[in-house]
Amino acid sequence: MASREVLAPALLLAIGCAFAPFGACAQTGSPAAPEASPPNVDRDVDASRPDPAEANGNDAGAASSAAADRGNDGGVTPRDPGPPAVRFVGRFDTRDPEGPTCGWPGCRIIARFSGTEVKARLDERVAGWMQGGPSEWDVVIDGTLLPKLVLELGPHDYVLASGLAASAHVVELYKRSETQNGYTQFLGYDFGDGSLLPPPLPATRRIEMIGDSAVAGFGIEGVGLGPDCPGPDWAAVWQNFHKSIGARLGEIFDADLNGTVYSGKGLVRNIFRPDPDTMPIIYPRANPVDVRSVFDFTRFVPDVIVVMIGGNDFAIGQGYDNGPTPLSEFTTAASDFVATLRSHAPLAHVFLALSPSVSDDNPPGNQSRTNVKVAFDTVARQSVMAGDGRVYSVAPPAAPPSELTACNGHGTPAFHDRVARQLAAVIKAKTGW
Known about the structure:
This protein is of the alpha+beta class. The protein has helices at 61-67, 245-253, 279-282, 327-344, 368-385, 413-431, and strands spanning 16-19, 25-26, 85-89, 101-102, 108-115, 118-125, 136-141, 144-150, 154-161, 167-175, 183-190, 195-197, 206-211, 256-261, 304-308, 349-353, 391-394.
């Protein structure tokens, strides 16, 4: 391959690295199944209520990140995109010098290049317990969405585009499926006789979306095929994080997004009760299914964090059912999790969002919606009392049945769009975006 560009552990912005040909890299900046399967799926949960420095990862908040682009006279100072590089957005495990590995959904691999073609070399891994894989990635060339890539196991070369005009182009790979379907190592782009160019400038805003299947785009490609879609409801073919609430928020605010999302997870109890790895446990991992991977939080310090989780804590457990999580225990876990988030993002606005798909009627008697709202309200109130006025409890209106016709009763594209717009109004009011 003539012009392959490969990643080493150094990252540019929300992960990013300047690459020399094959393997050299110059630093430029500082288990899951719904309704009956191994780890995961959920029954979810009114927004009637209401940049960091690229080189070092410091969080300066929305106002100062915008100010960083301005000169002393108040005029806009063009930002330097730096040397030729592939830009990575999302969480990647960068321990292997051959290339980074993505498990979490919403990972983006972006490059500008001159030339007429582009290929990608990807190595797909699927563990024995995983079902519904392998991973699926969207391909975007110059802003146009092309047919998705359904990966094959092991390392393979994939032709992303050919016959392009002999000029500058932008290629992007976007991971639309979740970790429990497979995880992917990026081994490089190949531009044929073309060459890598400086990357597109990073966004000046950063959002992190944390949650379960309600925000994962779970089953969104299976609208109308349910309630149970053919094969595993959690299969990659039915998922699409690119259409999710978080992705829509990224588009609305022109922000980089980290999708720290895993179906079936709770704060105290997962839907698959034998699975001990709740969201607080997997949150520090670069790859959520690799206990040895550790995410470097300085690489992505969000301005806004949206947490939409809790339905699984109060659902009927799979594997065995030990009842709903006691409210006091869930509230403490939510408070502790916010403290963890705050330790990594001291200035971030944290929105504890009640999922519109969580209902007091399902399961009957567990008061799922009421309990999650009470806990989030309590944590937000206690945060204010402790001097932290950037933690909010938000409750978009409950979803009507017409919005929950994706696989296993999950949200439709209309659901994700509606909730994103309602959350965006609250985020704008609090941040000034």
